[in-house]
Design goal:
2 domains; 4-stranded antiparallel sheet; 11-stranded mixed sheet; globular; 15 helices; 15 strands; alpha+beta
């Protein structure tokens, strides 16, 4: 329980936040910060709420950051990526990640969805078969079109070590299926012994594991493309009403905004099975990701996003408020540029059905964003890479195998700028430094 503050205490906290923000060189709206702090002080850690006017619901704190003005857009994309309800299948689709925090994250990278899928079946094996059919049917129905293209599906868990496309994959790893492999219903790999092995789609039923579907989607009205993913949290409901998660764990609901009020009954039913320790487990998990992105795969943009979620859910509102202000800074726009480079890479391949003119327009927008955000030699190098990309998309030049190298180079340069910006700002927040130091002392993630 957070200690209740008097009006004087609250005003002093706002003034302290503004003072620190000025030291960091970050602009702060005093009224907005005061209103956010007041809302956070009155929230509860595990409480979820329904916005009847918008027809959305989710964790009470998460709804504070959701931009309802984008709801039509996200529902339109959800029509492409979400699994359908059937007589024996209940679903609840939600928006997750930075796209669910549109009030503060003005430059979200991808469009990430999270869908709860509850399958009613006589046995768990039957539920797995139903899931396999659901996912493949969805993949084939939304395989490609003028405004979308399937990229990849993760379904199943390897039960032994294999080699695919010359790369070793360990036992227990998720199985990634390319669009063509899904259409064929099989993939070619080699066992560790070197023996050729034709793996059928149904192999994934042995252990569905981490299920995820990825598309690239064209948004004509926005003149751009976006990666849209759907992470599935699948449960089996037995005839006796018991609920079993197919991946061994029912995910908590701390990051999602659910887009269909009609799915409240399913959400409520599943929420009863979420562990009372879910918040503590979530914080440990996110802390582990902070460790990963500060040690193994350096990405201080992702660190900022995860620290914001940890701090706002654990009552460290001053630090959360400061991190919250970083996401709409002009330099934060580069995070979106970074993500969109991958999207253009996927959509710009020769066999892509995505409209080329849309990609050209989006590349022009990226050039403008970099010019407005960067300065110096780094700006020139990134802009030149983007111009070469544009020339390739229009057919003015043929980069051939040089296309991937160009994307990789531009992405690395933007990545460096993003890391530089977020790291410098985060290290200016006392609570962040203390958090990272405490994490470092444990010598492991998830302390």
């Amino acid at each position: 329980m957070t200690e209740e503050k008097t009006p004087v205490d609250a005003q002093e906290e706002v003034e302290q936040i503004i003072k620190t923000a000025r030291t960091l060189g970050v602009e702060v709206d005093e009224t907005d910060v005061a209103q956010w702090l007041a809302a956070m002080a009155g929230s509860e850690a595990m409480k979820w709420d329904l916005d009847e006017d918008a027809g959305v619901y989710g964790h009470e704190i998460t709804l504070l950051d959701f931009d309802k003005g984008s709801l039509e857009r996200y529902r339109r994309i959800a029509d492409i990526v979400q699994l359908p309800d059937l007589p024996n299948v209940e679903t609840a689709v939600s928006l997750a990640g930075s796209a669910a925090q549109g009030v503060i994250q003005l430059y979200p990278g991808d469009c990430d969805y999270f869908e709860r899928v509850n399958i009613k079946a006589e046995t768990q094996e039957e539920a797995c078969r139903i899931l396999a059919d659901l996912m493949r049917d969805k993949a084939l129905t939304k395989f490609e079109g003028p405004d979308y293209q399937l990229l990849e599906v993760r379904f199943g868990t390897w039960q032994e070590d294999v080699i695919k496309d010359g790369e070793p994959i360990g036992n227990g790893s998720p199985i990634s299926w390319s669009a063509d492999e899904i259409k064929a219903g099989q993939m070619q790999v080699a066992r560790a012994s070197g023996e050729a092995w034709e793996v059928e789609w149904e192999y994934g039923c042995l252990d569905p594991g981490w299920c995820k579907m990825d598309w690239v989607v064209t948004e004509t009205e926005r003149k751009g493309v976006v990666n849209a993913s759907n992470m599935l949290d699948v449960t089996w409901e037995a005839p006796d009403g018991s609920i079993t998660p197919l991946d061994g764990f029912i995910d908590p609901y701390f990051q999602e905004v659910y887009l269909e009020a009609d799915s409240v009954p399913l959400f409520s039913k599943l929420a009863e099975h979420i562990s009372p320790q879910a918040l503590d487990e979530y914080v440990r998990q996110i802390t582990g990701e902070v460790y990963k992105y500060t040690h193994k795969h350096i990405n201080y943009g992702k660190v900022a996003k995860r620290l914001y979620n940890v701090f706002r859910l654990t009552g460290r509102y001053r630090a959360a408020a400061l991190i919250r202000e970083l996401f709409d800074e002009p330099a934060a726009l580069l995070y979106q540029v970074w993500s969109l480079l991958d999207t253009i890479d996927d959509a710009g391949k020769p066999d892509s059905t995505i409209d080329r003119e849309t990609l050209v327009q989006q590349t022009d927008d990226l050039i403008r964003d970099v010019v407005e955000t960067c300065e110096g030699p780094m700006e020139t190098e990134i802009v030149m890479s983007l111009i070469k990309m544009r020339d390739s998309l229009t057919g003015r030049v043929d980069l051939g195998e040089g296309w991937s190298a160009l994307i990789t180079n531009a992405r690395a340069r933007v990545e460096g700028l993003v890391n530089e910006f977020f790291k410098a700002k985060l290290m200016g927040i006392t609570e962040v430094v203390e958090f990272l130091e405490a994490m470092e002392e444990t010598k492991k993630p998830g302390f």
